[in-house]
Amino acid sequence: QNQLSGNLLRKFKNSNGWQKLWVVFTNFCMFFYKSHQDNHPLASLPLLGYSLTIPSESENIHKDHVFKLHFKSHVYYFRAESEYTFER
């Protein structure tokens, strides 16, 4: 089974804070859980059509290991806790 899982911090385009979530990535979809012990996801995000980029300087995300997923007007920022997790 092709799957990645681990903690990521999530930020919405118009929010200030970061939310720590357990994330499972499988079959081009991200599933979000409060913790790795939860059986049911809080939400899911099908990734077909999304672009993966690094935030630009003008987006004012002054953190390390951040990537951006965007599709039309939907923008999500995710922050990994380490370089290793970011590269995965």
Automatic annotation (TrEMBL):
Residues 1-88 form the PH domain. It comes from the Eukaryota. Gene3D superfamilies: Pleckstrin-homology domain (PH domain)/Phosphotyrosine-binding domain (PTB). GO terms for molecular function: guanyl-nucleotide exchange factor activity. PROSITE patterns: PH_DOMAIN. Pfam families: PH. InterPro entries: PH-like_dom_sf (IPR011993), PH_domain (IPR001849), RAC1-GEF (IPR051835). PANTHER family: FERM DOMAIN CONTAINING PROTEIN, FERM, ARHGEF AND PLECKSTRIN DOMAIN-CONTAINING PROTEIN 1. This is FARP1 protein. It comes from Ibidorhyncha struthersii. The gene is Farp1_0.
